[in-house]
Amino acid sequence: MKYIDILIERQKVRQRYIKNVKKYLQLIKRRAKKILGNDTKVYLFGSFLKGKFGPNSDIDVLVVSPKVPERVSEKSEI
């Protein structure tokens, strides 16, 4: 696979996340509450929230909970 093909594929994946950001945030919220409990809050912040994101921007998500995931697998599931 050529480098340009990798970049094109990466951009397609990124566009899918941007187009469906609400869906992905709900998924993160459900998983976080399942693992960490109902006191867990999920926040979107940064340039994406402000509508000032560019081609290299990411989507910043903050998970706040009194509980810390015990296993690495729990962290990666969220």
Descriptive account of the structure:
The longest helix has 17 residues, at 3-19. It contains four helices and two strands, in the order H-H-E-H-E-H. The chain has helices at 3-19, 21-36, 47-50, 72-77, and strands spanning 41-45, 60-64. The chain has one domain (3-77). With 78 residues, it is an alpha+beta fold. Strands 1-2 form a two-stranded antiparallel sheet. The chain is 55% helix and 13% strand. The N and C termini lie far apart (31 Å).
Structural class category: alpha+beta
Count the strands? 2
Largest sheet: 2 strands, antiparallel
The number of helical runs is: 4
Integer tally of domains: 1
What series of H and E elements makes up the topology?
HHEHEH
**Whole-number mean pLDDT:** 91
What's the alpha carbon Rg, rounded to whole Å?
A: 15 Å
Poorly predicted parts: none
Strand content: 5-15%
**Globular, elongated, flat, extended or rod-shaped: what is the shape?**
globular
Largest sheet: spatial strand order: 1-2
What's the topology here?
Blueprint: H1 3-19, H2 21-36, E1 41-45, H3 47-50, E2 60-64, H4 72-77
Compact summary:
The chain is built from four helices and two strands, in the order ααβαβα. By secondary structure, the chain is an alpha+beta fold. The protein has one domain (3-77).
